[in-house]
Design a protein that fits this description.
The protein has 239 residues and is mainly beta. The longest helix is centred in the first third of the chain and has 20 residues.
């Protein structure tokens, strides 16, 4: 009986070790909130009388996530629709012989992206517990919208308001690049099929065409990079 008991115990231990090393596959629906900002660097010297300020806007994301999990580690690629952009406020001043003309513009730039992130995730207890994750992403711009208002203060004392309402396009005449790439990293918590994560998206690709001049209404500069804080939830189903 003793050898049989020993063999049985060894078999149970081996089965447990094998089970813990098995790879499981899941698919999940993901949604969340973006706090996005288009960070700008180095305005053109052609505009010494220009000031600009950008701030974050709130947008959203949604898509699907796949998971291959083995032990405490998982690989999670995703396909997302993610909205990013920035609020802008610009002031352009021209001083002439007759007086000073000023243009003030405020509004939002919202850019729509199809994004492919690939995260490597460590979960404290495999299928539940605290998480650490990081990984690259690539994204393709699929349009967007600019809305706001420009007010012209003339040297004569007159004022003129003009609304800004136009769609973003990507062609030979636009100053925006269509492909973005960067790095995501963050923390999360997993409990069974539910995963909640807080991450930061660090865009590494300059989204502005350096051959284009600064657009006085859009708030764009010679160089611009996506920066996004993301709060997301994913619910997984076994495959």
């Amino acid at each position: 009986m003793k050898p049989l008991a020993t063999l049985l115990a060894a078999s149970l231990l081996l089965s447990a070790a094998t089970a813990s090393a098995q790879t499981s596959f899941h698919i999940g629906g993901r949604g969340g909130l973006n706090q996005a900002q288009l960070v700008t660097h180095g305005a053109s010297n052609d505009y010494p009388s220009r000031t600009s300020d950008a701030s974050a806007l709130y947008a959203w994301q949604a898509g699907i996530t796949l998971e291959a999990r083995r032990g405490n580690f998982a690989v999670q690629p995703a396909l997302l629709f993610s909205q990013k952009g920035s609020r802008f406020s610009t002031v352009n001043t021209i001083v002439g012989f007759a007086g000073t003309d000023t243009w003030k513009s405020t509004g939002t730039n919202r850019y729509n992206w199809v994004e492919l992130p690939l995260h490597v995730v460590y979960t404290q207890h495999g299928d539940h517990g605290l998480q650490l994750f990081a990984g690259p992403y690539v994204a393709l711009a699929v349009g967007g919208h600019q809305q706001g208002n420009t007010t012209h203060y003339s040297w004569t004392g007159a004022t003129d308001d003009k609304p800004i309402d136009q769609k973003h396009s990507y062609n030979s005449l636009s100053d925006g690049k269509r492909v973005d790439a960067g790095l995501n990293f963050g923390v999360g918590y997993r409990q069974g099929p539910l995963q909640v994560q807080l991450s930061y998206g660090l865009g590494l690709r300059n989204l502005r065409d350096l051959t284009q001049r600064v657009d006085s209404e859009s708030g764009s500069y010679d160089a611009a990079y996506n920066r996004v804080a993301q709060l997301t939830g994913t619910y997984f189903f076994a495959l």
